[in-house]
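Regression check, adenosine-5'-triphosphate case 225:
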Amino acid sequence: MSAFIIDEVKKTFSNGEVEEEILKGVNLSLKEGEITALIGPSGSGKSTILTIAAGLQKASTGEIMFDGKDMTRMSQEEVRHIRATDFGFVFQSSHLVPFLTVEEQLQLMLDVSETKMSKKEQTNAIEEMLKLVEMEHRKESYPSSLSGGERQRVAIARAIIHRPKILFADEPTASLDTKRSKGVMELLQELTRTLKLTTLMVTHDEEMLPYVDRVITMRDGYIVE
Ligand SMILES: Nc1ncnc2c1ncn2[C@@H]1O[C@H](COP(=O)(O)OP(=O)(O)OP(=O)(O)O)[C@@H](O)[C@H]1O
Ligand SMILES: [Mg+2]
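Current build output:
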């Protein structure tokens, strides 16, 4: 069953007088337990469709079905709630808060996510998650003392500590060397399967494609294959 369906999504930006259609009708359905990778040339609309799917910006037309409901018809507050509870985000740069320790980064996410976990459950969840990404030994460290790959593992842990259903990742390995990139992809693959996540990622790097379940190519605002 598809957990997430993007149906005929179009996006037009107006730059002063000129209207430009950046997405020209994108259709995509994502499956639970699978990583779908979006590839394609720079400017083809990959990040735009990802941020629209994630409710970070609005589609001009089209539907985004999550859990059987069209997100484009929801109030801002409903979308905000879904983003906080059901979605997780990873970006090219880890965007860790420089003055918080590794475990505090995860705690901050739990605070934002309106989790129903008790304090004790939260502490346990943080410990378990850090074990999963093999960062437990660095839980009291600050981001400045971590390597790029370690920071990205913490960013992934933070993205899913509240147990979201959908994980959005925009070029999560772009700031890493090949060895660390592969480590991050192995982790994303394992977490997507074991936690039954539905993962949508953008990548430029063909070497990462063996780690994903489906590859979708975009060109000029269309899906071409
Ligand atoms: N807010 C905006 N206003 C105007 N144009 C925009 C806006 N956001 C994106 N665009 C344009 O839409 C096009 C697609 O951008 P997008 O960021 O989705 O591309 P991309 O496929 O992610 O590229 P890259 O691989 O370089 O990250 C680009 O031409 C970009 O300049
Ligand atoms: Mg992009």
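Comparison notes: The pocket of adenosine-5'-triphosphate (ligand 1) is lined by residues 13, 15, 22, 42-48 (CB under 6 Å). The chain has one domain: 2-96+148-223. No diff flagged against the previous build.
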